[in-house]
């Protein structure tokens, strides 16, 4: 073998070496840049937006999923937090229900970030906050799903390695709190329930329907620790290692002391977002830890 044929063989060998080397080096480079340094980890941030919910879920496959975003007055804080945590695009925004402490920041947030999909309860309110919310999500020109498209028991296709199961949604509920999208988020062996503001009657429906499936590591307690929720049956079924109450100064006496006492009995640890400056739940798929962000 000589001449042009030898050169072609050498060139093919050289190309193979370069391709193999790049295949080894590229993932290492990506890891070193920190872009994928939480491969295998799920991060769930419960932001401190006083009496309101704003929850960011960062999945191992790089999806940023936002569940609620607090009162309008906290919009700039939420945006700053997302910017500080490498959020460029919100892959899905889930509005549990249309109350201002959950969706007030939507218009400002949607102005700032591209949002790729929206899920909401479909419960209609006659408030300016609700009208602003609908206008903002429709202006985003992305798929929008509500109670017409989703049922309890459905899995939302948001991530390849974290499942999002809808435990409750009811656009015809008697009040907006019971319309809440209740979500079970599962990463490997680690389960969280995000309860929105659902009341005890919705809790009992879920206990009857899902039973032992409700046993979780982390519970985002309903309705800022109100006595309208966190029933004994619900806490018995969920038996969380960690309970998180999203709370701050408010005019309604929340959280109820009776509920905080009950959580101390049923949950391993109880955190409040205002007490810790927000909470990070970090899961490696086998177990999880909860730490304050302050
Ligand atoms: Zn609320």
What does this structure look like?
By secondary structure, this protein is of the alpha/beta class. It folds into 2 domains: 1-37; 39-292, Ribonuclease Z/Hydroxyacylglutathione hydrolase-like (Metallo-beta-lactamase, Chain A, 4-Layer Sandwich), CATH 3.60.15. It is 32% helix and 23% strand. It has helices at residues 4-32, 75-84, 100-103, 106-112, 128-139, 200-210, 232-238, 257-266, 273-276, and strands at residues 42-46, 54-58, 64-69, 89-90, 92-95, 114-115, 118-120, 144-145, 155-156, 163-168, 182-187, 190-194, 218-220, 242-245, 269-272, 279-283, 288-292. The strands form 3 sheets. Strands 8-7-5-3-2-1-16-17 form an 8-stranded mixed β-sheet. A 7-stranded mixed β-sheet has the order 9-10-11-12-13-14-15. A two-stranded parallel ribbon has the order 4-6. Helix 8 (257-266) links the parallel strand 14 (242-245) and strand 15 (269-272). Helix 2 packs parallel to helix 4 (106-112) and helix 4 packs parallel to helix 5 (128-139). It starts with a helix and ends with a strand. 45% of the residues are buried. Mean pLDDT is 91; it is low at 16-20 and 22-39. The chain binds zinc ion (ZN). Zinc ion is lined by residues 99, 101-102, 197, 223-224. Zinc ion binds next to helix 3.
Structure in a nutshell:
This protein has 294 residues and is α/β, with parallel strands linked by helices. It is built from nine helices and 17 strands.
- How many helical stretches? 9
The count of DSSP E runs of length 2 or more, i.e. the number of strands, is 17
- CATH architectural group of the largest domain: 4-Layer Sandwich
| Shape category | globular
Low-confidence stretches at least 5 residues in length (pLDDT < 50)? 16-20, 22-39
SSE series? HEEEHEEHHEEHEEEEEHEHEHEHEE
């Amino acid at each position: 073998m000589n001449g042009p044929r030898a050169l072609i063989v050498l060139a093919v060998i050289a190309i193979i070496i370069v391709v193999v080397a790049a295949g080894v080096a590229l993932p290492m480079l990506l890891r070193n840049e920190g872009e994928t340094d939480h491969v295998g980890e799920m991060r769930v941030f419960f932001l401190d937006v006083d009496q309101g919910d704003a929850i960011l879920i960062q999945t191992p496959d790089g999806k940023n999923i936002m569940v609620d975003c607090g009162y309008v007055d906290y919009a700039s804080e939420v945006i700053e937090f997302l910017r500080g945590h490498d959020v460029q695009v919100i892959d899905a925004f889930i509005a549990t229900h249309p109350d201002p402490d959950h969706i007030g920041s939507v218009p400002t947030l949607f102005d700032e970030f591209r949002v790729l999909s929206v899920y909401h309860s479909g419960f209609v309110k006659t408030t300016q906050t609700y009208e602003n919310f609908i206008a903002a999500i429709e202006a985003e020109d992305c798929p929008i799903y509500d109670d017409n498209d989703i049922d309890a028991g459905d899995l939302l296709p948001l991530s390849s390695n974290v499942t999002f199961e809808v435990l409750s949604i009811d656009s015809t509920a008697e009040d907006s709190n019971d319309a809440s999208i209740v979500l079970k988020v599962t990463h490997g062996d680690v389960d969280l329930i995000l309860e929105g503001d659902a009341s005890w009657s919705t809790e009992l429906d879920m206990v009857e329907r899902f039973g032992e499936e409700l046993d979780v590591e982390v519970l985002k307690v309903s309705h800022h620790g109100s006595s309208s929720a966190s029933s004994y049956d619900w806490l018995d079924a969920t038996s969380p290692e960690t309970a998180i109450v999203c709370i701050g100064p408010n005019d309604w006496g929340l959280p109820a002391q009776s509920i905080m006492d009950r959580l101390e009995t049923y949950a391993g640890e109880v955190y409040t977002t205002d007490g810790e400056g927000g909470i990070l739940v970090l899961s490696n798929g086998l177990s999880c830890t909860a730490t304050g962000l302050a």
